[in-house]
Design goal:
The protein has no helices and eleven strands. The protein is mainly beta and 120 residues long. The strands form two sheets. Strands 2, 4, 5, 6, 9, 10 and 11 form a seven-stranded mixed sheet that branches. The termini are far apart.
């Protein structure tokens, strides 16, 4: 059983940067694919990025490609999502999720999310 806790959300201004953290417990993340997702009110959940397990390969299939960087620290069992140039369209609850062997919409383990708001 993997427990995930997101942190780092808050209120930022357009153009600001923000780093979200995902702390894992209950298992080592070494073998898991970790994904970041977000869901805004009234919208479907959107996949933002994914880092694979052992290889550590990253990909960014979502609309924020070019503005986000995903990284992991296996020693700390942490995954980070750095977001740059935040836009008025970015407010949402941001979630990290874990599964083996890859990311998909129905990941097995989810955190409870961290809220990001963007306001001038």
């Amino acid at each position: 059983q993997v427990q995930l806790v997101e942190s780092g959300g808050g209120s930022v201004k357009p153009g600001d940067s923000l780093t979200l953290s995902c702390a894992a417990s209950g298992a080592s993340l070494d073998d898991y694919a970790i994904g970041w997702f977000r869901q805004a009110p009234g919208k479907e959940r959107e996949g933002l990025s994914c880092i694979s397990g052992p290889e550590g390969s990253t990909y960014y299939p979502g609309s924020v490609k070019g503005r986000v960087t995903l990284s992991r620290d296996n020693a700390k069992n942490m995954v980070y999502l750095q977001m740059n140039s935040l836009e008025p369209e970015d407010p949402a609850v941001y979630y990290c999720a874990a599964d083996i062997p890859s990311c998909h919409r129905a990941m097995k383990y989810w955190g409870k999310g961290t809220l990001v708001t963007v306001s001038s």
